[in-house]
What does this fold into?
Amino acid sequence: MKNYDYIVVGQGIAGTVFSYILLQNHKTVLVIGSKQKKTSSLVAGGIFNPLTGKGLVKTWKADELFPFMKDFYENLEKDLKTSFFHQMPIYRPYRSIQEQNDWLGKTANPDFGIYVESDTNDKHYTSDIYNDLGGLETKYSGWVDLPKLLEAYRCFIQEKESYLEEDFDYSALEIKDKLYYKGVVASKIIFCEGTEAIKNPYFTNLPFSLVKGETIDILIKDATFQSIVNQGVSIIPLGNQVYRVASTYSWNPLDWENTEKAKEELIEKARNLLKRNFEVVGQKAGIRPATKHRRPIVGMHPQYPHIGIFNGLGSKGVSLAPYLAKHFFEHIEYKALLDKDLIQPQ
Ligand SMILES: Cc1cc2nc3c(=O)[nH]c(=O)nc-3n(C[C@H](O)[C@H](O)[C@H](O)COP(=O)(O)OP(=O)(O)OC[C@H]3O[C@@H](n4cnc5c(N)ncnc54)[C@H](O)[C@@H]3O)c2cc1C
It folds into this structure.
């Protein structure tokens, strides 16, 4: 029997970040990840943004999430000896004078203004982007290259003999004083299965409200802008004049297939923003593990105190995962109270 403090099921951003917090805290962990099952993190645009939506609203817990996230990903980059964390402004061209007034009015509030660049450099964008009224740049924003992070982390834990590639078999889990799974003994198991959690027999009534999303990659010859641009969609600079246009929201059908409809929608929204012609060079589709209340699902099972869940990261996995993984760890190990806004398994 091989002994671990924790088993973590799933190696999307939730399982990756939670297991890294365990390693940072000198716990032993076996991450069980599937190659067969779908991974939302491999489809995501990877954007983190403290001010979101048409109304430019400060995102839930921004003041806690964003400072913690930066240190967390930068440490992880050092351990993995690779770079995937791209902090950069998100440029938001104004759609109308009204919007300009509303947003500038909001930035007068220091609570909000700390997330906005005081001097927006509109000229950086003028050759590529329609921005007749100018625009606003957010701070502490950017994107994480999730496929690169996930792949580097898998290699990192494989070297530590902390990774097992297989579909977790629920029927092979024995719950006694400890947990037994195919020759492994562990004190705790944390499920981080993304949308696959709807098949988990231990958590049957989770309030998921899954949302499909698609992105396209475009080649914009001669484009020079190096920051994310957002207005209706986000256009993310991936390098070599390739940009990702993200993303759509749809509910029917809820599958992982690319559609012409989404491609056309993204092309049209990109055309409304871009002065230059472009060519579509890629497309991806996936499902976000969103919840009805738009809050993550974090907690231990009410009947089985060794079994927990870390899920429901919705459309904000990149910014939510680090702070919440640490918060959950402190709850499990030191009995810290969980944030009352989180959805706890019933
Ligand atoms: C189009 C699109 C755009 C998005 N854009 C952004 C964005 O810009 N910024 C952002 O923060 N978020 C974005 N998201 C949301 C983001 O993808 C999710 O918040 C995040 O990926 C959820 O991570 P997760 O680890 O919970 O789930 P996943 O990434 O789905 O990972 C779950 C993992 O568990 C594994 N698994 C499941 N069951 C088992 C089992 N039985 N045995 C073994 N392994 C198992 C799966 O194989 C998978 O690898 C986007 C999503 C989509 C679809």
Notes: The first strand starts at residue 2 and ends at 9.
